[in-house]
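Batch queue: ligand-bound targets. Current item pairs a single chain with zinc ion. No template structures supplied; prediction is de novo from sequence plus SMILES. Inputs echoed for audit trail.
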Amino acid sequence: MNFCNHCGESVSQKIPPNDNRMRYVCDSCGTIHYQNPNVVAGVLPLIVDNDGIEKVLLCRRAIEPRYGYWTLPAGFMENGESLEEAAARESIEEANLKLNKLNLYFVMSLTHISQVYTMFIGQAKNDFSPGIESLETKLFTESEIPWEQLAFPVVAKTLKSYFTDRSNFLSDNKIGVLTPNQVDDFPVHNFVYDVKK
Ligand SMILES: [Zn+2]
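Prediction returned. Tokens below.
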């Protein structure tokens, strides 16, 4: 970052008062430009094909990075939408696929690229086609997954976890929009992680 997006003057890296990290601070107006991780929402779509076999839908990317490689529908959240809305939107954009059930499956922090990757298991009818970001959309059984042609490690991780867990997978949905007056109804984590200094 070189210029302040508030006033257009130059910025410098410095640690603001009462902070402990380097930030971009405007030399003119003093605005502190915080940079935080981006959230990716994605889905592993499960579809029963015309022969009654449950398969996973993959999309072959029509965009860089990793043009031509296979992936699960996923993308960055937009402002103003919920996590599940983002996952559902990405499924429509990449595969013209309407999901009728979503269960949060896992959350992966990709600290090296400052992304939080959230993955749902989704269920849908056998009705899909390539969206503008996809060259091809296709159903795969576990043995048909093109492991060597997957776009990203986190996609492989998602698929491997799913096939490992499938025999005993049964999960309540633990995702929603949380407003302050709903806090008492929301599940509370009973463990605490140490904060890295
Ligand atoms: Zn400024």
